[in-house]
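Task card 7
Instruction: Convert sequence to structure tokens.
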Amino acid sequence: MNWVITGGCGFIGVNLVERLLRDDDRASVRVVDDLSASTREDLGAVCSFREVSATDLPPAGTPGVDLVVGDVRDRDLSLRATRDADVVVHLAACSEVLRSVQDPVTDCEINVLGTLNYLLGARDAGCSAFVLASSVATLGEQPPPVHEGQVPRPLSPYGASKVAGEAYLHAFFASYDLPTAALPFPHVSGPSSVTNG
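Output:
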């Protein structure tokens, strides 16, 4: 399998990379990360990797982990990175609610246009699956229990951007037959997670 993981140096990303390599030591994993919220060392803590440029990517199927440092808003990078991918796991995001309130344009560019860029790449590559890290922020404040039948009522630009991402997933499945899934993480913790007291 040829995997592309955006935001792959982050907490969820490094745990996913570690698991993929544990399950298949011949896996080909391409990590795309702008290193704005994580470091090369975070990825290096779970695996050996090669740092490569977007213009000099190894052939698809090359076992191991390649790190491409870049921005999900870069359309050319998204098309290069996803070429010959089997699965795209899109974890990269501007995920701070307060930051989205202060700068909704950047939040939209990263979360909506970034998602669209990788959906286009996955479509062009003929991927078998596209997985989006979403959020319960899409629902806003609703009475428990939270469930997927509830109508989204986001209270922040961040939540709205995640609603848009989920809508694009539905559209790409309906329009291009690209299998998609959104995983609305409420709170994620585990080995190597960082908590604030």
